[in-house]
Design brief:
By secondary structure, the protein is an alpha/beta fold. The protein is about 40% helix and about 20% strand. It has 17 helices and 22 strands.
Length: about 500
């Protein structure tokens, strides 16, 4: 008898519901776009009720497709959720949303963060919690609500993340998991909530609103009758606690222990590495791993494959007509492969990893350059930004293997580009739904389909397409040097202008 699991993966723009067999193969998938609300400057929000409605519809469609594909009614034995990290999803005492949710692209707390930087709060937070607060972190967002919306702040009964909100809709129970709990308020040494951290941010008054912490593979609740009617799932089906989506992607791509760098080239540049000892640095966030005594060092910025989407929409709309724009654009890349263009692209359309925000830019563009040159520069800029982060978490190059997922990873051009620019072996899982699979694995652990992460990894091990560093290593190393020089020059000019 076939065992089915369902993973729900909800990111910044899309929620995907995926039905898997217990060997990790995809049976069916459905997706729904989730609208972003940007009516107020620096606010990037979503309607929580609409988010749940769209996610429930995706689950129902995925189940219907799975049943049609299998020729029998498909009933997953367990469900779990992964979702974008950080941001803020608030509930009142009746379990209703308090206004719109802030996503991880929200930057309304930027001014408050500057004060924290100046007064030493940020430095102490790094030492205590393993991470320096950033605009979309729950800590500054909650402090902003406290200062600007005191009535709303006073109504807070539960502080949830994206995936915790969806799990609450499925089960009626508020909780979080070990990975998500560490986004702001845990002591890096104990990996548990810290009263000192709450006091540091001036948030002690809402300590009781922090949800209970479960391990990712624990049962967090069961599908309610109401959720069953909305989704088509069977009431009473176990729901696992689940995972922060970038950790779920690592799990779904086979990374559950130290020794491999997991890279996600999506809206964000995600670069993460599991380690067995806590260590802090301004270069990464040190968060909880999959178990006590394991940490996930992640270095991130909103500067990855979204730049490719922008380039296609602004400079290559004609390539959209064929369905796969990069199939057509590949010919243009091939045509200029032998041209040693020195164009630099800074991929900072939506933010940068630098203390002072640096805008996106093409540098070195000439009249004889064409669209192919610009596309290659965009691709190199994205990969160089990933290298910047990887050099932070693995400065000595001790980890020689990268597991790459995300939209651009499926294109061989980018797989080889990553291998050459990082000078590391790059492995790309053939199964593209790594985040949903990571969630489904947590569901399987919760009900005993797998005995743990190691067995789950063996049974769901994806086929890998591998890329070894090749002839372009030296060229891309030189290009990365120019890229870094350009950033340094911009930063120095900004410092000079800011000086009295």
């Amino acid at each position: 008898m076939t065992t089915y699991l369902l993973g729900l993966d909800s990111g910044l723009t899309v929620t995907k519901a995926v039905v898997f067999r217990d060997d990790g193969t995809v049976v069916a998938l459905a997706r729904r776009e989730i609208a972003q609300i940007k009516t107020i400057p620096r606010h990037v929000e979503r309607n929580m009720a609409g988010h749940w409605k769209a996610s429930a519809a995706a689950i129902r469609e995925a189940l219907d497709r799975a049943s049609a594909s299998e020729g029998t009614e498909v009933r997953p034995v367990a469900v779990s959720v992964a979702g974008h990290g950080d941001g803020l999803y608030l509930l009142d005492r009746a379990g209703a949303p308090i206004g719109l949710a802030a996503t991880s692209l929200d930057s309304r707390a930027q001014t408050l963060l500057r004060r924290w930087d100046e007064t030493g709060v940020s430095a102490r937070a790094l030492e205590l919690t393993g991470q320096r607060p950033f605009p979309s972190s729950p800590a500054p967002l909650l402090a902003h609500v406290r200062n600007e919306e005191p009535e709303r702040y006073g109504r807070i009964a539960a502080i949830l993340s994206c995936k915790d909100w969806l799990r609450y809709c499925l089960t009626g129970k508020a909780a979080t998991d070990f990975t998500e709990a560490s986004v702001a308020f845990t002591d890096i040494r104990t990996q548990r909530y810290s009263d000192e951290a709450l006091d540091l941010f001036g948030l002690s008054a809402i300590a009781g609103a922090l949800p209970d912490v479960l391990m990712p593979g624990d049962i967090a609740g069961h599908i309610t009758e109401e959720a069953a009617q909305a989704t088509g799932l069977v009431a009473g089906t176990p729901v696992a606690a689940g995972l922060h989506d970038v950790t779920a992607c690592a799990v779904g791509s086979g990374v559950t222990e130290a020794g491999t760098i997991a890279v996600i080239a999506g809206t964000y540049s995600i670069n993460e590495m599991l380690v067995d000892a806590p260590k802090t640095s301004i270069g990464w966030n040190a968060r909880n791993g999959l178990r006590p005594g394991q940490w996930m060092n992640m270095s991130v910025s909103p500067a990855s494959s979204a730049n490719l989407d922008w380039f296609v929409l602004t400079a290559a709309r004609d390539a959209l007509a064929g369905g796969d724009p990069f199939a057509m654009l590949q010919a243009e890349l091939d045509a200029i492969a032998g041209d040693p263009s020195d164009i630099i692209y800074l991929p900072y359309l939506y933010g940068s990893p630098h203390a002072e925000d640096v805008p996106a830019a093409f540098l070195g563009l000439r009249g004889w350059h064409g669209r192919g040159h610009m596309l290659r520069a965009v691709a190199e800029g994205i990969v160089f930004n990933h290298r910047h982060h990887i050099d932070l978490i693995d400065p000595q190059g001790e980890v020689g293997r990268v597991r790459l997922t995300g939209g651009s990873s499926r294109n061989p051009f980018f797989g080889q580009l990553f291998a050459d620019a990082l000078n590391r072996r790059v492995e790309v899982p053939e199964m593209p739904e790594a985040g949903a699979l990571g969630a489904a694995i947590a569901a399987g652990i919760a009900v005993g389909v797998y005995s743990g992460w190691e067995e789950a990894g063996r049974r769901t091990k994806p086929q890998l397409r591998s890329y070894q560093p090749g002839d372009e290593v030296a060229k891309l190393h030189a290009g990365y040097g120019r890229y870094c020089d350009a950033i340094d020059t911009i930063m120095k000019r900004r410092e000079e202008k800011a000086a009295p």
